[in-house]
């Protein structure tokens, strides 16, 4: 008997040939019929995928990872014990240099810019030239004034010589007048004796006395002439000294004019590379105006800012491994040159004031100067401002006997 899959199966108990019913128990009949009913009632479904066994590779990888971690930890510990604990490092470090700012001492128009940006120049090479004409005229004018005063000096010398001759003449005249006085005195005495003996006349005595008085008056005039000649010499000598002082002042003015003339040519103070060139031909510049900068690439150094907790092991002379960020594959060996006398905050424009009641402790940084090897500087590859990482090996710090520790 046919039934649909959606209907319940009808169980018919079989009947024998003799019409008797099957004597099997109902439980046995149900057990036989249920599989058939289940097959008829269960719709056809696709085959379910077979379950794959769980892989065992994970159990094999975990021990390998553990061994790798232990090996890495062991290597790191060994490296720290043998080297790391002796190294003091910081990445707060930069390449620095004593950069010269090129500025004129005098004002004027730019006549020639002798260099271009990023050009390497030697010490003494002309960088910028200002218009020299005004300063040359000032120097020539000062020299002309000096020459004029020197001519005046020669005139004073001649006048002094004439005054000295007049003095000598006055002195000679005085000697003659003194002799005249002596003669007049003798004549007067003789006339007086004769008159007392009634041999001479009174008129003769009077004439002798008049002659004596005239001689004495002339002698006084001779003294006055000598004084006038001496005073004239003193005046001329004072005028000559004034002329000499004027000449010295003019010479100073001439020297200043020549210096100003020399300052119209701005020269390189040392070997380096020109940077930050900010001037062109024809520009009007004033004294002190910044025109360019000169970086001494062969005199660079490193300023590394170490924490205050690190400087106990820093000693000048210690070796330093330097890693420049621009050249990651290269290691440079430098030397600790010096340690700053104070932290960076001490030299700041606004130092911290911790006495106000609001105190927060901050680890201070101490600048440390690191010298670079000459061969690296001579290569000219380094530039001021590059970031570096420095590692100071405390084992190489000089000891009291001049040897390196750890050797």
Which features does this protein show?
single chain; 407 residues; OB fold (Dihydrolipoamide Acetyltransferase, E2P); 3 domains
Q: How does the SSE layout of this entry go?
A:
Blueprint: H1 26-41, H2 57-82, E1 87-96, E2 100-102, E3 108-113, E4 120-121, E5 126-130, H3 133-196, H4 202-262, E6 265-267, E7 272-275, E8 284-285, E9 292-295, E10 301-307, E11 319-324, E12 332-339, E13 365-371, H5 374-379, E14 387-393
Antiparallel strand pairs: 1-10, 1-14, 2-9, 3-5, 3-8, 4-7, 5-6, 7-9, 10-13, 11-12, 11-14, 12-13
Biased composition (Basic and acidic residues): 14-33
Region (Disordered): 1-54
Coiled coil: 139-187, 226-260
Write a structural description.
The structure is a single chain. With 407 residues, this protein is an alpha+beta fold. The chain folds into three domains: 84-97 and 298-353 and 360-396, Efflux pump adaptor protein, beta barrel domain (Elongation Factor Tu (Ef-tu), domain 3, Beta Barrel); 100-130 and 265-292, RNA polymerase II/Efflux pump adaptor protein, barrel-sandwich hybrid domain (OB fold (Dihydrolipoamide Acetyltransferase, E2P), Beta Barrel), CATH 2.40.50.100; 134-262, Helix Hairpins (Orthogonal Bundle). The protein is built from five helices and 14 strands. It has helices spanning 26-41, 57-82, 133-196, 202-262, 374-379, and strands at residues 87-96, 100-102, 108-113, 120-121, 126-130, 265-267, 272-275, 284-285, 292-295, 301-307, 319-324, 332-339, 365-371, 387-393. The chain has a six-stranded antiparallel beta barrel with strand order 1-10-13-12-11-14. A four-stranded antiparallel sheet has the order 2-9-7-4, with no helix packed on it. The chain has a four-stranded antiparallel sheet with strand order 6-5-3-8, with no helix packed on it. Strand 11 and strand 12 (332-339) form a beta hairpin. Helix 3 runs antiparallel to helix 4 (202-262). The longest helix is centred in the middle third of the chain and has 64 residues, at 133-196. The protein starts with 25 loop residues before the first helix and ends in a 14-residue tail after the last strand. Residues 1-29, 31-46 and 400-407 have low confidence and may be disordered. The chain crosses the membrane at residues 61-78. This is Hemolysin D. It comes from Pararhizobium antarcticum.
């Amino acid at each position: 008997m046919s039934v649909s899959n959606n209907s319940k199966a009808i169980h018919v108990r079989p009947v024998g040939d003799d019409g008797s019913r099957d004597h099997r128990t109902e439980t046995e009949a149900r057990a036989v019929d249920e599989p058939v009913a289940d097959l008829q009632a269960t719709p056809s479904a696709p085959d379910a995928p077979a379950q794959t066994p769980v892989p065992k590779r994970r159990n094999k990888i975990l021990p390998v990872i553990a061994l790798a971690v232990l090996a890495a930890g062991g290597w790191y510990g060994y490296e720290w014990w043998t080297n790391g604990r002796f190294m003091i490092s910081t990445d707060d470090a930069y390449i620095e240099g004593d950069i010269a700012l090129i500025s004129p001492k005098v004002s004027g128009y730019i006549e020639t810019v002798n260099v271009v940006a990023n050009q390497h120049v030697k010490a003494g090479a002309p960088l910028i030239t200002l218009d020299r004409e005004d300063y040359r005229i000032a120097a020539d004018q000062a020299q002309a004034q000096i020459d004029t005063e020197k001519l005046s000096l020669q005139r004073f010398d001649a006048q002094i010589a004439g005054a000295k001759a007049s003095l000598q003449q006055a002195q000679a005249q005085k000697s003659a007048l003194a002799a005249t006085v002596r003669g007049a005195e003798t004549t007067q005495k003789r006339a007086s004796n004769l008159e007392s003996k009634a041999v001479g006349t009174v008129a003769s005595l009077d004439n002798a006395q008049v002659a004596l008085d005239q001689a004495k008056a002339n002698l006084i005039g001779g003294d006055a002439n000598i004084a006038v000649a001496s005073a004239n010499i003193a005046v001329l000598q004072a005028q000559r000294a004034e002329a000499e002082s004027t000449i010295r002042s003019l010479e100073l003015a001439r020297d200043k004019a020549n210096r100003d003339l020399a300052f119209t040519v701005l020269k390189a103070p040392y070997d380096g590379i020109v940077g930050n060139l900010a001037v062109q031909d024809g520009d009007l510049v004033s004294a002190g105006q910044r025109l360019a900068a000169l970086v001494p690439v062969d005199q660079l150094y490193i300023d590394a800012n170490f924490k205050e907790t690190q400087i106990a092991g820093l000693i000048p002379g210690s070796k330093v491994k330097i890693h420049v960020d621009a050249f990651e594959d290269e290691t440079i060996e430098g030397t600790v040159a010096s340690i700053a006398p104070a932290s960076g905050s001490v030299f700041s424009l606004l130092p911290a004031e911790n006495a106000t009641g609001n105190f927060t402790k901050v680890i201070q940084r101490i600048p440390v100067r690191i010298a670079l090897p000459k061969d690296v500087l001579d290569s000219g590859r380094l530039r001021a401002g590059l970031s570096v990482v420095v590692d100071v090996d405390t084992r190489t710090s000089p000891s009291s006997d001049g040897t390196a520790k750890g050797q």
